[in-house]
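>> Question from a student workshop board

For tomorrow's exercise we were told to take the sequence and the ligand below, predict the bound structure, and bring the output to class. My setup keeps failing. Could a helper post the expected result so I can at least see what it should look like? The ligand is magnesium ion.
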Amino acid sequence: MSSPRERLQQQLAAPLPLHPQLVLVTDLDGTLLGGSSAWRRRVYGWLQRRREQVLHVFCTGRDLRSVASLLEQDAAHGLVAPHLVIGDVGCTVACGHSLAPVPLAVAPIDALWQGKPERLLPLLEGVAGLSPQPLSSDRRLAYYYDPEQFEPDLVSALEAHGVDCLFSDNRYLDLLPAGINKGTTLLALLELLELEADQVVTAGDTLNDLAMFETGLSGVMVGNAEPALRAALPRLSRTYLAEGHGCEGIVEGLRHFGFGHLLSDL
Ligand SMILES: [Mg+2]
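>> Workshop helper replied:
Here is what the output should look like for this input. Compare the format with yours to find the bug.
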């Protein structure tokens, strides 16, 4: 009988590093895609050289199609595919190489999502201040919202159907299966892979990253983080607020958490 770790590996198109020294979990927009071009090139090149020591996970609100086009576009900056992708704000887990969803990690989320769109979509139709994002709706519904127009009373009516409403960056509203977010999906993945918590550093910049910081894993809030996320900092015991923006902030955080020895060739 194979272990969950072995079964998950079998569902990936490329092997994971055998003995990673760091598991780096980065949000994309504003975080791994943030900072100066020079810093981005440095960090992307470093990730490429350190592939066997640094297990890299994207943890993003983007769907897989959007991640795929990003990897094509941003090749100019030297961005390479990560080992794993947590997409759709925690509702999708995929192989970074093939971008194929990983059934072992996705099935429990899928089970929670069954029947939800049918119940939610009628409540969302024609609501003032809401417009659908042009994303796939795999295990979540994604909208733009206008804080001036959107009526917050709707939130409890929606959440009564077993979803969480997640507002982020003053413009995004995601409806996710209740209890699923970037943080819970990351913890489930780490458990499946039998990875130790003290090897992990997360990084993010907006409110949909708060759940990662709330896991208690080491976290880097990059210097360009949105004010609503910064406001949570005092209660986040393992989160470091960097001065540097985007990629520069990630590096600052890695040094802060004692991973400077891996940065010698940055
Ligand atoms: Mg972001």
